[in-house]
Amino acid sequence: MAELNDKGIRINKFLSEAGVLSRRKTDEEIEKGNITINGHIAVMGETVHEGDEVRFKGNLVSAKKNDVIILYNKPLGLVCTSKEADKDSIFRKLDYPGKLIYVGRLDKDSQGLLLLTTDGDLANRIQKSRNNHEKEYVVRVDKDIDENFIKGMRGGVPILDTVTKKCKCVKQGNRSFRITITQGLNRQIRRMCEYFGYKVVFLKRIRELNIELGNLKPGEYRKLTPAEEAELRRLADKQ
To answer: Per the similarity annotation, which family is this (predicted)?
Structure first.
């Protein structure tokens, strides 16, 4: 949550981060006159400052503070579901004393960097494909690859009734490569490889936006540093 300061934050961002309305819905409600700041009807682009009283349809809105963002190294065999839905849920293994949501899934057979947060608005902004946010993976397949395969992966692959966006792909070994994508289609990299006749045998996410997995061991997690969080939020806001 962007803290309120002398400069303030825009009313649509304030309500979005407070978990009341999306930014688009906030703009719609402003036009309807349903949002007030210190008793006057808010206008588009107006800012909220420390101590201001914001109400939506007469109900007081409080700023949500102290959102948490965690970097987790998801081990193989765990799934991104609720604790109640699956015995192999990450939330059964992750020893964290608070409710978190994951930012982009990793399937059961994939491992590596997984961001978890209490900030739903941030999670939504990161996951929107139109924002072209980068995610980088190390991948190994079941047989040798060549430059034709690499070029094919880069150029866009027809899967799931669409064609993937062009991406970065670099060969690293006879059967391994790094790939950076900006989408989050269901099992996207696995399906892209299958299109060319390859099966993924190892898939690890090592970066999302500016956040790198580094030396974090499987099953371990840490909070982002203030500098990492600030840059992540800056990148997430770019569209």
So the answer is: Belongs to the pseudouridine synthase RsuA family.
Query: Is 107 tagged catalytic?
Result: yes
How far apart are alpha carbons 231 and 74 in whole angstroms? 23
Looking at the domain assignment, is residue 233 inside a domain? yes
Give the pLDDT confidence of 12-59 residue by residue, as tens digits.
988 887 778 888 899 999 999 999 999 999 999 999 998 899 999 998
Q: What is the pTM of this model?
A: 0.74
Reported as a single tens digit per residue, the pLDDT across 149-190 is 999 999 999 999 999 999 999 999 999 999 999 998 999 999
Catalytic, out of 27, 86, 107, 109 = 107
Both tokens of 94, joined, read 């992750």
Domain interval for residue 230:
69-128+213-237
Tell me how far apart the alpha carbons of residues 94 and 221 are, in angstroms, rounded to a whole number.
8
Nearest-angstrom CA–CA distance, 96 and 94: 6
- 160 within domain boundaries: yes
